[in-house]
Fold these 2 entries.
Entry 1:
Amino acid sequence: MTLDVQTIRKDFPVLSREVHPDTRLVYLDSAASSQTPLPVLEAMDHYYRWSRSNVHRGVYRLAEEATDLYEGGRTKLAAFVDADPRGVVFTKNATEAINLVAYSWVRRHHKPGDVLLSTLMEHHANHVPFLYAAKDLGLEVRHVPLTEDGRLDLDAARDLVADGRVKFLAMVHVSNVLGTRNDVAAMTALVRDANPEAVVLVDGTQAVPQMPVSFRDLDVDFYAVTGHKMCGPTGIGALVAKPERLEEMDPFLTGGEMIRDVSIESVTWNDVPAKFEAGTPMIAEAAGLAAAVDYLTGIGMQAVREHETALTQTFIDRLSQVEGVTVHGPRDAELRGGAISFAIDGVHPHDVGAMLDSKGVCVRVGHHCAKPLMKHLGVVATARASLYLYNDVDDLDPLVEGIVAARSFFRR
Amino acid sequence: MTLDVQTIRKDFPVLSREVHPDTRLVYLDSAASSQTPLPVLEAMDHYYRWSRSNVHRGVYRLAEEATDLYEGGRTKLAAFVDADPRGVVFTKNATEAINLVAYSWVRRHHKPGDVLLSTLMEHHANHVPFLYAAKDLGLEVRHVPLTEDGRLDLDAARDLVADGRVKFLAMVHVSNVLGTRNDVAAMTALVRDANPEAVVLVDGTQAVPQMPVSFRDLDVDFYAVTGHKMCGPTGIGALVAKPERLEEMDPFLTGGEMIRDVSIESVTWNDVPAKFEAGTPMIAEAAGLAAAVDYLTGIGMQAVREHETALTQTFIDRLSQVEGVTVHGPRDAELRGGAISFAIDGVHPHDVGAMLDSKGVCVRVGHHCAKPLMKHLGVVATARASLYLYNDVDDLDPLVEGIVAARSFFRR
Amino acid sequence: MSMDDLYQEIILDHYRKPKNRAPALQDEDVHVHHSNPLCGDEMDLRIRVADDKVDGLVFDGEGCSISQASASAMTQAVIGRDLKDALDLAEDFRRMMHGDEPARPDDLLDGIAFQGVAKFPVRVKCALLGWMAVRDAIETYQSGANAHTVTHDDDGGAA
Amino acid sequence: MSMDDLYQEIILDHYRKPKNRAPALQDEDVHVHHSNPLCGDEMDLRIRVADDKVDGLVFDGEGCSISQASASAMTQAVIGRDLKDALDLAEDFRRMMHGDEPARPDDLLDGIAFQGVAKFPVRVKCALLGWMAVRDAIETYQSGANAHTVTHDDDGGAA
Ligand SMILES: Cc1ncc(COP(=O)(O)O)c(C=O)c1O
Ligand SMILES: Cc1ncc(COP(=O)(O)O)c(C=O)c1O
């Protein structure tokens, strides 16, 4: 299965934009945010033009249509990640999904003496909420270190859980910096062997856009997703959870839509997942996300995965040959997703980014919201090229040319 | 100043839809969610088609454009409500804005013995978060009762604050059920007279779409706003605050974008308002909200207010004459916004809604997320017609016809 | 929403002249109170059991035409049935409200007139209220209790 | 982003051959350490004051070409000035970075070459790093202290 990238690109108008005269735009920043295909824009536009209204309990047609679009988005996303729709809570982004877990699970269930386990390759979204909770509650946080080539050090992890005090694990499925695809099953087994009650949250932000994901097979408690990296709109994400787990939990955000009954003294909560969705939800965004799921399903996630793996390998191999370039993370594309961080000897990532931009190449430079990982790598920042279904080998030359130019321009 | 409603309607495609054959759509549910004018859709579409990327710290052009759109949204909204942009925190809706205050202010500042003051006309969004916090923390919540005609009973309020223990006031600016415009200055003065340190949150969800609002003049600490009721998109709202107040507060949601520095042990927060915006924000939505603000500013909020006041008066006067109809809330449109709740003797609101829908008239029926108020009114639900800038007197006849039909159809 | 699809003549008849609507039932075995706070519907349902059959059944309450009519039709379909059989019929009605073809259309009597309500998602729970109350009343009886109060906003999946 | 707008020849010269870049300063009065964690820039700046004038000034650190070149140009513009005058000049530079016309273009010396950076919002804080560090060093001196560490991701408005 190979993707017909030329055809796919037609669905993404910005790829035909010439930011600089006569320079093709090469978008290599999908790990920050993917482009959005036309069918997604049309789905949102259609809602706004023809079915605009609020959801739930409206007795008129527009409100029924809006409700169907919104709940349809939930059903579609659930099917896409192979989960029960009752466990899909819409949030504004993955960060809110993780905070929901930090507030409604961690802060309400853990006590001093409990240990939270995390890893050294987490995005701040999957690190800071637990650090913050740990400070407030007096919990301990431990971090799984990394191997030379940027994978989780499972032997070290085994030592970290040995005392049986680890009650909660937060780990990333695919790293946004190193690209590493983590072995969730191995980590989960290891943590649950030491403590069968341990609860597991996986940050699937970078995984869901890039490969088939089955929440059921992963058999974890929580899984965080974001729309804007998977061809969907901004402003929507989701916490995917085991419904039983949600049922045990107190709510997080409270207000309209999430209550069953309320008086001035007391309140009873609605059923899950509504219990966790307070206020007017992201209606257009859910319609857009549904269209994004349809779009990706139409192409086929297995095909996306294969395309990316092959392309990532080509990029890594070629970049590694450029003088002065060091690629971080695993070398074997099978072990990773499409985010490729690299350093150029003697040139600051900011300067690399500026040079690449002048050649129409969009990459991200900085710490990628993963400061602890930067520290581990011994760098202050990296440049990162990240690939998606609209990228192809023709995007490699402009990248390499830009890197070579940056090196000759900036090297002292 | 009168609005040219016929011209305005052209900006709202759905108003030309015939949900039922040969029946004009009459949208009277703007208090639940307003329609969205074309310039707002175009602004979002433009972002998605041509500047799609993540905000902040991108060194390439698209990322700069996205950042400008997002931060431009903040500046525009700040100007629209006459506030300092440093005090404008984007949220997904008004409910999240209020929860931010409940978590980062109330839960972190108040102790048993402290009293939270609220009113009997609050939307659940401005009631449940404080009830929930109060239960967890052992705080007392008091509620300002209402007068016969649905206004805050200020004499009773004075008694409620007399012991000086009221530390926090949460009140709605314009009621989504009764339509009542509350006198924020009077309530604030009363509370601060009893306790100069009292902190005030006003729920401006229904006020901002309908009348000129100056946060500076209101001189309150917090003000909650939502985009989807003010011609803007779904998925965005804002907490407007005094920046000093935000500076005193710990963050709420944590993760990327909101930190200054972080290690595996510790974290320092970013400056306000970034400190309160974790994760990838609602970028397209901010661009859309900016366009909504431009749209409303172009028409003029004073003109909107005058149009609505006149129209509301016409509706109330006529509805009150229909046999069996009782209008809730103040009779004088000067004292209110454009939400008109009414009861039809002997007919359940659900049945009213169904009959109206069959005539193309969209109203909301139910408790409008204000159960304590329903209880106070002695009803289980009401039907509510709510007006906005695309409504006009020609929308009154279909409403009245539907009500008369419902009465003859359903009355036993 | 077409008024005719939703408000069939049979439904309106039950609404205007409800059957077995009463505030009390002699020798009642179980009384349940169900409310749907989101619609503001309230229902009191009383049942008397004899020989493991529904011997007496009345409802009372407030609600929209659909909820009142459906409860009325329900009482006619259920009175005289075995408890187990009545539970089965209630389940059949519930599934019909979710779009399935009813397995026992004849036994539902006038209840079948509510099939069209399945197309109006917001009204489904109105039509279900009486049926879910009777299900709960029977189960309460079977559990040996004599009263139960349920607050719900759902499709009968929870109690 | 046009490379030429951003990386003027003067800037590149300062980047390739920085002035007053050194890890130590004899008889230093104040040492400040500024870092911008979001860019990963780190800067050590040392100052010696004599007669209320900037008598010696060196910087050292890591960062992109803009931050390093701007610090280099800054040292040349500031050495020898009255403390108050230097603060004023730093403020002039800061305002230039926010799009204002500089009031003292000549006094900024090569610093004027950074005017174009104002068009690149993400790079503004790079250009400001050295200037904000010297401002802080002077204020630290005036307050009677001899060292200060600042972590920022802003435009010099906060410390
Ligand atoms: C008075 C009032 N407050 C708060 C809200 C909640 O707004 P949102 O649903 O956008 O969070 C609403 C809208 O339903 C409202 O009418
Ligand atoms: C690995 C990872 N986790 C979490 C996030 C946060 O996602 P969002 O910004 O959509 O909340 C990101 C995106 O930046 C990410 O790459």
Note: The radius of gyration of chain D is 14 Å.
Entry 2:
Amino acid sequence: MLEQLSWKVGGQQGEGVESTGETFAVALNRRGYYVYSFRQFSSRIKGGHSNDKVRVSLKQYRTSTDYTDVLLAFDQDTIDLEAGEVRTNGIVIADEKFNPTAPDHVRLFAVPLTSIAEECGSAIMKNMVSLGASAAVLGLPIETFTEVAEERFHRKGQKVVDQNTEAIRRGYEFIKEAGGADPSFALKSADGTHRLFMMGNDALALGALAAGARVMPAYPITPASDVMEYLIKKFPKVGGVVVQTEDEIAAMNMTIGAAYGGARAFTATSGPGLALMMEAIGLAGMTETPAVIIDTQRGGPSTGLPTKQEQSDLFAGMFGTHGEIPKIVLFPATPEECFYSMGEAFNLADHYQCPVIVLTDLQLSLSKQTTEPFELEKVIIDRGSIATPDMLAKERPDHGEEFKRYLLTETGISPRAFPGTQGGIHKVTGVEHSENGRPNEAVLNRTNMMDKRLHKLEGVELAGSLVRTGDNNPQVAILGMGANIGAIDEACERLREDGITAAHVHLHTLLPFPVQTLQQSLADAERVVVVENNATGQLRHLMSHFGVEHPQVSSFLKYDGSAFLPIEIHHFVKGMF
Amino acid sequence: MLEQLSWKVGGQQGEGVESTGETFAVALNRRGYYVYSFRQFSSRIKGGHSNDKVRVSLKQYRTSTDYTDVLLAFDQDTIDLEAGEVRTNGIVIADEKFNPTAPDHVRLFAVPLTSIAEECGSAIMKNMVSLGASAAVLGLPIETFTEVAEERFHRKGQKVVDQNTEAIRRGYEFIKEAGGADPSFALKSADGTHRLFMMGNDALALGALAAGARVMPAYPITPASDVMEYLIKKFPKVGGVVVQTEDEIAAMNMTIGAAYGGARAFTATSGPGLALMMEAIGLAGMTETPAVIIDTQRGGPSTGLPTKQEQSDLFAGMFGTHGEIPKIVLFPATPEECFYSMGEAFNLADHYQCPVIVLTDLQLSLSKQTTEPFELEKVIIDRGSIATPDMLAKERPDHGEEFKRYLLTETGISPRAFPGTQGGIHKVTGVEHSENGRPNEAVLNRTNMMDKRLHKLEGVELAGSLVRTGDNNPQVAILGMGANIGAIDEACERLREDGITAAHVHLHTLLPFPVQTLQQSLADAERVVVVENNATGQLRHLMSHFGVEHPQVSSFLKYDGSAFLPIEIHHFVKGMF
Amino acid sequence: MTTTVTVKDFRNDVRPNWCPGCGDFSVQASIQRALASLGKQPHEVAVISGIGCSGRISGYINTYGFHGVHGRALPAAQGLKLANRDLTVIAAGGDGDGFGIGLNHFMHSVRRNMDITYIVMDNHIYGLTKGQHSPTSAHGFTAKTAPAGNIENAVVPAQIALGADIGFLAQGFSSDVNQLVSLIEQAIQYKGFALVNVFSPCVTYNKVNTYDFFRENIVNLDKVDGYDPTSRMEAMKTVIETQGLCTGLIYRDDHRQDYEDQIPGYQTTPIAQQDLQLNPEIFAETLKEFA
Amino acid sequence: MTTTVTVKDFRNDVRPNWCPGCGDFSVQASIQRALASLGKQPHEVAVISGIGCSGRISGYINTYGFHGVHGRALPAAQGLKLANRDLTVIAAGGDGDGFGIGLNHFMHSVRRNMDITYIVMDNHIYGLTKGQHSPTSAHGFTAKTAPAGNIENAVVPAQIALGADIGFLAQGFSSDVNQLVSLIEQAIQYKGFALVNVFSPCVTYNKVNTYDFFRENIVNLDKVDGYDPTSRMEAMKTVIETQGLCTGLIYRDDHRQDYEDQIPGYQTTPIAQQDLQLNPEIFAETLKEFA
Ligand SMILES: Cc1ncc(C[n+]2csc(CCOP(=O)(O)OP(=O)(O)O)c2C)c(N)n1
Ligand SMILES: Cc1ncc(C[n+]2csc(CCOP(=O)(O)OP(=O)(O)O)c2C)c(N)n1
Ligand code: SF4
Ligand code: SF4
Ligand SMILES: [Mg+2]
Ligand SMILES: [Mg+2]
């Protein structure tokens, strides 16, 4: 009996690969398994190879496996491209229709997926047949899939449900009869705990919703579009609004306008859009307007690899604006973190009155995975320093000078008055300004205002800037961020099996860079390996940039658009000892 | 007799301050003096205090003095604001018209500037009267100014010339009679060598012209606009074209289009415009298109202090684009360097086929100063690796595959074929691509192409990346960039007078960061002080970022919009010993 | 608390840094008069401006004021309106700001049709950057960046606004403050996106399009008998015939819904005043989709 | 060296990754046929495109091809033209690329009037990003980002082009390749900025603006007796009446000079082929101003 299993479905883009993978994954998640699914696709609409790899396990892994146990192939291409990854004696289920051939190290089952589906009513049900076949191979009760099918199709009437159930059953039986129900592939049964199944983008959208975001101007771009597409469906329930703007410049300036107006507002984009937002992000910094920007990183530079994994916008996000502004940059690693990070981002933006960039990477944004249910009570909405109408009525004379929006305070943080508030009239400008927001070039004022703004985050290390797990005084500490959390965790486990003690330091906050905390958390390690999905070692450079020191630091970089596999990190690190 | 002198004219913006200062400076430059003039002005058209400070000396200084010898005041404001800086027993020449009063430590001469001018024909000649008065104070021959006036007005007829000459003479005589011709203010006479007098922006424009730039799309912005405004007048002589685009995004993309087309093309902007260009700069990096971008830094962030000095776009210029591209960033320090840097920038862009950013700062861009004549012969035009029609005709079959624009080579540099060339047809795309420029997502191709692009500049240290002057094994090495060259030089001189040995390391190339060279050039110093016009110590951070180490580094920062004075650096460093 | 407002309530103590004689003074005064005569309270109004001499206007009127980046007044103004639909939102700026770098936002603001008034101070020049030609500078016009004469054709704001299918279009002239006040009043009252393009001479850098130039060349539609501002074809014809040099209410369509009224589930209480706490039931239901 | 060219010369070995049935195939074929029939040599032509399904077109035609960033095909194309005025420069892209993010460049390209042909594949949808509404999507249209129906009004490309005072305006339809070829030929031959907006259905994401939709709703001006494409007012009227749904040559003004012909001192030899070495005499003279 298997404790974990790796199943992959592949075929032409637009051929049902995604929905087959999704149904498989959702069904197993419902049974209480931990599921992690990773999709490979191209920047085109139809055609081109695409696949969806689903890992199923009794404990949680946050990444794909290095190998595949069961491959479901909708075309010969899939076998040619993906069978190499199937483990020896692994199983390939392929549509009989295209006379599949497979390499010797695997066991091929040519199943008449399409014919059975046609017999059940329609060729599109071949995905159901293939799920049935998968259930048989994996020793899963057939209900695993029939229940999901029932739920999904019951609105279309009993007949459709029956057809689909039948298709699943026929696939199941075909494999049984063909002798494909190998007990060595049987999955141990799970405990049936109910958890969520979603991608990072879903969690970001839910996090924004829970955090009180009600205005989202954005421009579509892969892999960020889901966030706006999800909220545009949900916002009507809470009176929020998504605007599909003419471009990212409008999106960012509109976000600023809405934030200035008192809403919690944010936008979401990816690299090219982030580049276009730079000027406006500077405006948010200068005017101390809380604005949240999600940047779902993808393969760069320029249009680059728009559907591939990368972590190469760190510098752009942290250093991209001209001049000098306070800025916060977060980088969650899991859907859970995505959800709570949004609450954190809005609170930080409101507290420090500055732009907050939430980075993800394509793997985190798009991989669907088992996620612990979110607790709304944990999302506290704290709007920071606000001059309310009551306060203004009390404290301020009826006809006095303007409200000092940029009052110089100890902390550098000054109360905001939302437009529309009586007694709160003031000016805001991207030009250097005085306490009441009027353009002012005087040398002393300038110094005070720069100090005010930059002081807000000086020396600050945010709570939860990193998470460290693993051994004390380890031979190696692996430093990573974002979606690489899973591969690093697993590599650490294997290193320990090899007798190498290992710790995993996962960075959650890039700005303010947690210099002390990071320094301390690496101090007891013999060696440090920085793992990142980019070509120049941006995180590695950030350590030096901010003065985090360690005598033995190496970089392990991957920038070919694919995600790190645990085995790669494991081998790299092991090779050092 | 004085070896150097500091003269300042001040008044309301739009009142002739600039032209008075300019005439004074040009006249003295003609006599063979070294002249450095620095203008303070506001971001408004008329009104607001403005002043022009001119330093005149027998040896070259590249900055203003800490004090003023002679102040010419067109209004009381100027005295109130600027007289504090006038040295004890210094002279204030003011228009009698406004009944000027001045502090006790100065000698005030109330001259009927306006009345005399009116008597000579028109009130606007008050600047001529004031120049005559200045000549008398400084013991300069009256011809110093009458010659310039003659030249300037001879096109307007003898009468105008005579009126202006008369105005100068009357001002001169008024001071003589009032006993203002103090021999202690007399300037030693200069050797009459002919040199140029210009601002950094002029030199950049001339440099581009000499380097063969013929297409300049740009959008106006302070302090960059002069470059386009100059070339739009000059280009008709050489068949070039300046396009005033709709925005900076168009300017950058048009520059790329023209560079792709085979022209030497560039644009010029300042911070907010640079921010808008980020996406397109990434495109230039990805498509390996040589494009030159001038960023004349001004006070940031956002609109900031648009007419003030700052050096705060280093990070934006170096790290601003999303994803990872090869990029070169230069930062000249003098008009001479501005001129030759443009030639260098175009050659580097053509050689490495990547964007080259030339940074200046407002002080360098706008301060007019004595400049050694430029030598055209020293500007070598090297277009790098080009597949010419002849080569293509010889090497390539008539109907073969497409030209491999992105041929993988040892150096990472591949020959370019200009559109229009027979046999050179190929594709260019900002998407990751194969050798012939077609979109290609394959893992191996991706790695090869990233390596190709980034490899071009890996480990490269460009010749002339920095200049070191001063003592060996110094107690202090001062590291600086841009217009701070003059203040640092002078501070070093004074430190030496105090018995502190000092070296000045002036950085000319920011990317590729000259790690080795800089490390070596700081190695023998006891302490290092990094002097920069920004609030966060960007250059200081770059040292750490790229791993340049020194046990004793301090930062001296100024970010109030004003230029460094020698005395400030002198005091700061002296205070360390 | 003041209940009746006067022009004075919209004045603050800042002295504009415009050149004496600049057309923008009249625009400022007209906005102030219009707001007063509409009985708006200063704190209920926000002026959002771009960068340029004209862009300084948001600092000179006693209302909430936001001075953003060059060319982006409209997106910021729309964001503000979405956050607080009760506010009277006025966007303002120059011809370069609005029809040069910011033209894309203008075109899309028109079709989005939020309830915003956009006032452009169209001096046919870049003032603040000292005299480059602007998108509304005529072909042949000489300027710092067109010393031999502009070789681009001018944008005619009224024409592109009609081309973009605007719902409210008016033009004014700094010398005719009474008309301008009335146009701004109407624009503010119009429920949807309204453009008031104002010929506002730059006395320092534009020696062609002077007060006299406009006085001589403008056709005042208020004085054209029978002009029908509800006919889009007539408006277009008039604009083409006058080459855009006409003032008055050019076009108005009262049969449109603004954006805000069409947003599904958008509430009458401004977002800025709502309780942001998410209803736990909605949340629980939402999570179900991911179970 | 080939002297007579055929359509084949404009084909390369790349298989377009468009969905079967996508309207863009016809646009590609039409460009290839037009180029061949005009006798252009492949290397004398450059196709500059933006990002989108449509933007891939520059990779599929055997000419020089440049695939830039989203919305910026026109500035890149203009830069290229300035560098080499001998080239036939075709810019191409989608409705989102050209009339969404890139609309500002379109408006200003029109008034700049360089000798460039701009071909838009207008499918009323964002194809590559999988089905969001585009600026040309109708009010009420449902899409991923407008599940309850689009609440913005559509941009009508022909109308804004006329509003911007374009010199050459045509519209085609992917189903009528013969007409499209002829329009593209005329556009390329036109000396100035020419727009060919093509109704090019997205068969995957747009289930409303299908081939049938266009077939039923388009007015073909080639078949309208007496239609006069030299009258701007008539063009405007037609476009308004058909709500932009017309094909054929809509407007053409042959009395304009293009930008290149007006640049002071611009030479007939392309910049890319000139000797860049500065004449020392010109240099010496130039330096004198700074003496
Ligand atoms: C991104 C950016 N580019 C350029 C500038 C410089 N700039 C400031 S105002 C302006 C144009 C002003 O013209 P207009 O909008 O017509 O306003 P006016 O001064 O004439 O009122 C420019 C180009 C800037 N501030 N930001
Ligand atoms: C700056 C930027 N923003 C967003 C995107 C994502 N994106 C790619 S294509 C596209 C729109 C495509 O629509 P359209 O231009 O109509 O072309 P089509 O695919 O319909 O042919 C978008 C939004 C991008 N590549 N760059
Ligand atoms: S420069 Fe022109 S637009 Fe600017 S303030 Fe002066 S007159 Fe007005
Ligand atoms: S998605 Fe639409 S536009 Fe894109 S290739 Fe497919 S049919 Fe064409
Ligand atoms: Mg203007
Ligand atoms: Mg489209």
Note: The mean pLDDT of chain D is 97.
